[in-house]
Amino acid sequence: MGLSSRFRPGAGMERPRYQPAQRPYRFLVKMETVEIDKIDALDRRFCISYPLADERLLASIARFGVLGPLALRKGGRAVVITGHKRLDAALRLGIGKVPCIFSDADDRQALLVSINDNLARPLNTVEKAVCVEKMAGLGFPVEEIYGVMEMLGLPAREKALNTCMAAASAEEPVWAFIVRHGLPLQVVEQLFWFEGGEVQEIIRLVGPLRPTVSSLRETLHLMMLLKVKRGEIDLAGLEGAKDMEALRRALRKRTNPLLSGLEEKLAGILAACALPPYVRVRVDPAFERESVDITIQARNNEEVEGALAKLGNVAREGLFGGIFELTHGTTDTI
Amino acid sequence: MSCSYCILRSYLNNPGISVRTATDSIIGEIDRAITAEKRHVLRFGTGELGDSLAVDRRLDAVRPVVRFFGERKRALLELKSKWAGLDHLRSDLNPFVVVSFSLAPQRIVDAEEKGTSPVAKRLKALKKAQDWGCLVGLHFDPVIVYDGFESDYARLIDEAAQALDLGRVIWASIGCLRFVRPLMKLFLEERRRNLLHGELIMGEDGKYRYIKSERIKVYRMLYGLLKAKAPDLFIYLCMERSDVWRQATGAQVAGSEDLIALFDRRIGEFYGGLQ
Asked: Which fold has domain A26-104?
């Protein structure tokens, strides 16, 4: 899986010119019951659903049967336009016949029907990417694709379109990762910044750490930065992190060794200060500001006296001096 | 001309260049500002959000302004550029125009300043400006940290010292690379290794910049190299904190007033006070 399949609008790809439908397509409203083996379940050219397996739908169909008809395209072995999940559930349950309606829609019309049908529910990022990729594959003009992208809540831009193309052509484990963690397109874009093999390795590394979208976004940012800085990224060297925060820290030590060193020194000094919880020392996180904020949140006179006495001792021991050395920016920290 | 680190990349949505042609009204505005100012010699520039010279040979837009400053004799115009095309202005250049060029090692010019003049040409243009009676400015901004940048900058400053009369450099600025958040995204996308090599932190102003200890080291190095060539050279730091000024140069510059005072003093050395 790589980015070679990126779709570049107007970049010389031979695509059929889009023509608005000349001929209205029809759905035959008469519902028929069709034997399931008359349907080509493997032809998923209009399928935008991922994952197909839906346990709640399976339970419902097991109890009530397939109530809503599948939309099929006429001719030869029927191709499903809408109802892939119902068909999947029916097959898993060994149901022999399903209700269907037939249409004579052409490929583009059928795809739009499928997309339109699915817009009634929230689509995940993989499904959105598949919509875009299938539209591009059927030669819809870019403006038409952008229009659908806007309906799907995606930015109507070439970069987003390329990310969709890359995501849609990714392998199943990547799809599963994207959907399991609810990744928005922006994070998917970060993921596909890496090469195919690296994407797999990243998923293997972070998957078990149960990342949130924001933790993954930050982690991927640090990984990208590290790769640009060093020309490569040693993902194997990052194994062993017990959670996303540990992974973030390990990455940050590599991208920001000086800042990490300052933070460690500061943590050591503050630990040595052993200040009571109502006395706080706040240092600018980037160690830019020279000054340090010391706050006392006292509830009574004793706490004020205790805080001042403690601060006096700490100052006399020179511990604050250590902090100021860090904020002056003149000490080597690694 | 397309500098990869240019802030304009973060907010421009149109690749075109707009040039204001209402020179008379601009000059009128400048004239009123000069008249109203009683304490300082004002400095004006045309290269703040663009390049003073890049398209000027074709458009001839700067000439009336250059002439005005030569006639007005009470304020300075700084032309800041990375494009060594100055000859067309020769007949109008005058001592109230400071010709300034950004200077960076040729390696950075090649990689990050596409379409600009090579360093050697910029230095030649500066020398011409000096020969034609102008003072010149040197802007080492942005300074980019990469493997070997120290020796490249030492060579660059050597070349500048050989090419120019440093006694007629009115000012030199040093500013480390800094950029807004959207540019970080672009630099990552474009895998700009030079721009992302140094250790970057997010400052209180929402800009990425090198961590303070690294900036101080860079400033000390460049300040030292320049002062070794020209001890009297006025060097200022761009957009820097007062503590960095102090640590890097020993100067107390707490705010813009202090910086303006330094400029006033330097201008006074060359031009005297307001007349």
From this structure: 3.90.1530
pTM, two decimals, is 0.87
Place of tokens 């072995």: A77
A-chain CB neighbours of B189 within 8 Å are 193
- The structural domains of chain A, with segments of one domain joined by +, span 26-104, 193-255, 257-328
Strand runs (DSSP E) across chain A, as ranges? 27-35, 70-73, 79-82, 97-103, 279-282, 293-296
DSSP B113-140: EETSPPHHHHHHHHHHHHHTT-EEEEEE
The DSSP output letter for A181 is T
How far, in Å, CA of A311 to CA of A296, rounded? 10
Which site among A258, A292, A325 would you substitute to test the B interface, given the most B Cβ atoms closer than 10 Å to its Cβ? A258
Q: Which chain B residues are closer than 8 Å to A256 by Cβ? A: 199-201, 211
Secondary element (H or E) of residue A227? helix A213-230
Closest chain B CA to residue A225:
B188
User: Which domains, from first to last, does chain B contain?
Assistant: 2-21+102-271 (3.80.30.30)
Chain B residues near residue A258 by CB distance under 8 angstroms: 199, 211, 213-214
DSSP 8-state symbol, A78: B
- The answer to whether A92 and A60 are in contact (CB under 8 A) is no
User: Is residue A88 within a helix (H) or strand (E), and if so which, with residue range?
Assistant: helix A84-93
Name the A residues in 276-305 with CB < 8 Å from any B CB.
Answer: 284, 286-290
Cα distance between residue A310 and residue A313, in whole Å: 5
Q: Does the beta-carbon distance from B199 to A256 stay under 8 Å?
A: yes
Min Cα separation B242/chain A (Å): 10
Per-residue model confidence as pLDDT tens for chain B (275 residues): 589 998 888 877 777 778 888 889 999 999 999 999 998 999 999 877 788 999 898 988 899 999 999 999 999 999 999 999 999 999 999 999 999 999 999 999 999 999 999 999 999 999 999 999 999 999 999 999 999 999 999 999 999 999 999 999 999 999 999 999 999 999 999 999 999 999 999 998 999 999 999 999 999 999 999 999 999 999 999 999 999 999 999 999 998 999 999 999 999 999 986 55
Contact A256 B192 (CB under 8 A): no
Give me the torsion for CA of A9, A15, A20, A25, rounded to 10°: -130
From B147, which residue of chain A is nearest by alpha-carbon distance?
A229
Longest dimension (CA), chain A: 91
Q: Is the peptide bond before A184 cis (omega within 30 degrees of 0)?
A: no
Calpha distance B37→B43 (Å, rounded): 11
Helix (H) or strand (E) holding B201: strand B200-202
Give which of B189, B211, B237, B249 to mutate to test A binding, by max A Cβ within 10 Å: B211
